[in-house]
Sequence to fold (963 residues):
Amino acid sequence: MNRRKAVGAICGAVLVLVATVPAMTANSLAGETADAAGDATAPAILLIQNATILTISHGTIEHGSILIRDGKIAEVGGSINAPKGAQVMDAGGQFVMPGIIDCHSHIAIDGAVNEGSVSVSSMANTADVLNPDDISIYRDLAGGVTVANILHGSANSIGGQTIVIKLRWGAPAAKLPFEGAVPGIKFALGENPKRSNFSRGPEKRYPATRMGVEETIRGAFGEARDYKSKWDEYNKKVSAGEKNLIPPRRDLKLEPLVEVLEGKRYVHAHCYREDEILMLLRVAKEFGFKVRTLQHVLEGYKVADEIAAAGTGASTFSDWWAYKVEAYDAIPYNAAIMTQRGVVVSINSDDAEEATHLNQEAAKSIKYGGMTRDEALKMVTINPAIQLGIDHRVGSIDVGKDADLVIYNHDPLSAYAVVQKTLIDGRVYFDRTRDIAERPEREKEKKALIEKEKKAEEKKPDEKKADEKKTEEKKPTDKKPEEKPKPPQSVVTEDGAGRGGAL
Amino acid sequence: MKRAGGLARSGLAVAAALAGPIFVAAQGAAPQGATLPGGPLAQAPKAYALVHAKIFTVASAPIENGTVIIRDGKIAAVGAQVDVPQDAQVIDATGLQIYPGLFDPITQMGLREIGAVSATVDSTETGNYNPDVVAATAISPSSEHIPVTRAAGITEVLAVPASGGMDSFGSTGVIGGQASAIHLAGWTMEDMQLKRSVAMVINWPEISTKTFDFATFTRKEKPYSEAKQEYDKQVNELTDWMERARHYAQAMGHGGPADYARDLKLEALAPVVRGQLPVLVFADRAREIRNAVEFCDKQKLKMILAGGEEAYKVKDLLRSKNIPVVLRPVLTEPLDEDDAYDRMLTQPAELSKAGVKFAFGSFDNSFARRLGQNAANAVAYGLPYDEALKAVTLYPAQIFGLAEQVGTLENGKIANLVVTNGDPLELTSEVRYLFIRGQLTSLDNRHKRLFEKYSARPKQ
Fold:
């Protein structure tokens, strides 16, 4: 956790190069077998019985049942009789809650998360580089996560486009996106876009101050506004019946910003300090758009009233602090204060490993700031759903919503709770019992592959001589081609996933 | 029963503590609260009696409705039938639980304030071989991390040089320096110091074909043969250091100072080669661990493993050689993509079953307060609870030779203890009182102050 997370927190925006972990046998191996852990198809009718249901929207139901039809929740209540043909799952009194929604993630991105060469990289899009084989998808599923907001990094004042996915492990990239979810764009304020912590890295780039960050955003939106009016004018003429018009030249950088102005694309803004938070809210007001979420927003507690008044959501960490100056006033009470002042708050991960225990991270606000259990649970379920505009589909256990559920053996607000099953659209995508049962088989398959590789090399002594270096790298003794490029001791990537990113 | 001067205030404090959320308790717990710079009370009573508590001594079975007597910084008595001395300040701990304070054996406490700001970082000296540098020298007693960490029930830590964190930027060195054990309270290092030198840090060289070059911010790859050569070179150098240190130690033992030129680095290594000072060897991969064990065997060094992400692969070796481990947080991503998703979480249970002694460490400052959370997660994945509790109290003390002083609630030990309203490993439990060196210690800290300040901001 720490070294990977925290170090990346600083370097994140630059460690693009660490990010490229080559695809490897081991990966696809894990992928295939783990896929087999899920049901090939979801049963048309599934009844979960004898569960402690944390509905989020209407309290806890002891010994409750959830009826699922075609991937949707059809009925929730005390005792439900199994309809004909229903598959019945006895939860044995265990806890069922809505799947966890991670409002800040960098999993499932193929390669680097930052297009760091320019201050405005709105033309780049995480949706174009989704990698369905990323093992972090499976691991986060195993931590109860069903939906994640896949963000570009934080190297730019205006970063790349973002996409909300469901963690449908085993499905191709095209099946990952959350159908109908509003796409987003990443903004970033403060130390990362001004490259404060990267003096040893590439040469200085504008902006290098918070003043410049504001001007970069204002400049880009000025251009976007002009670009939009050109198109508006053109479209007006076209609808008026004018012929032979030359359309304005398409600008892939400005198009997503026009969508922001039109309310068709959400702004997810990485920020830390109170002053930069207010700066962005002012700029948004100037150009007439809304900031959908403030990400990290570790000083959000200082300006919680202003954030609430702007109708902007806040997605923060539970207890990270002190990894850089702008995180020195970070406090674990942040979520509680913002909630108390009327902000919709979520707890996010920004890290593949952290995502596996967001339930625990949410629980910390009970201790730090006296949040109620319900408020804490909301921060990883319905609140991030609201922030991502998908609360009509997910985030609580209600009739008509997607059957995205997670089953824990204990109270999920405890450090002793372990995820037993994770369902998306009524289908079991993670099953702890099955995962454990299949391990010997996976080990066997891995060994067989290694043997095969060894034999293949023994057969080619000539080639070995011809290219000694190359073969040496593959010698069984130095094996482990699957080893991560472990950066020395502490250098790691911000996102435990080894992607170098955003924080 | 005579009660000490602070009684009235203290009584109120208890009432407040039981009634309110933690921040109220925190203020109450320290009668002079925020006016203190995070240190122990200026004029503490000589003796305390904590009564009516459930006491988890860690040394023996829990005691229901028990009493702990603290006198002159030490635990004077623990038990169900203990008389409260006349001069003791009494704290009614009805409904509360008492544990030894938690012990985090790998941090950079006081050596690093803000990772990204190099001026606030003193945790890793430049160069590869620095056996003579000692953590205690550079620990800032006023680091904001100290009160934040102890508010999580952690009463003592090891500050470990060259142990990672964000400051090292790729060069942790091979011999990193000496780790110091400190209490998390005190006006000066003299107050805080539990033991100045408890272990010599060695970052075991890795055979790594992939590295990240911080000078150019590029990722580099090199052939195995080259990586192996670099590895061999470093191990040879390390061997050389130990051999020179051995000769030096012999010279120290025989002739007078005139017989040899004084060398601070070799002098620092002398207790290591004599087997008096353990080496704390950072290694995670099974291959590196095996190589390190072989090296320490050959050099007759007393080894403690740090990191140990693949310790499970060499558990028999570790047990047979009696090598204890300070485990990296279980809330860490498994090393390889084809590792089981819960590989790190199940490892403590596996090591415990195999008879390998281990402690949990945070390997960090700002995440130190997750120490209990990590232990609890290991329990969730099969580690017996009692072992988890020992792995954050008694075992780190034993591993670093400090079990005579701390780690359990027993007569004569230093009174580092924590009074909670529940399981200290659980996320939502609150620390109500904290004693360090027998003194009721403030739970106030930077985070609570900011919380109170901004909670009081008038509605805009």
Chain A touches chain B through 96 residues (CB under 8 Å). The mean pLDDT of chain A is 87.
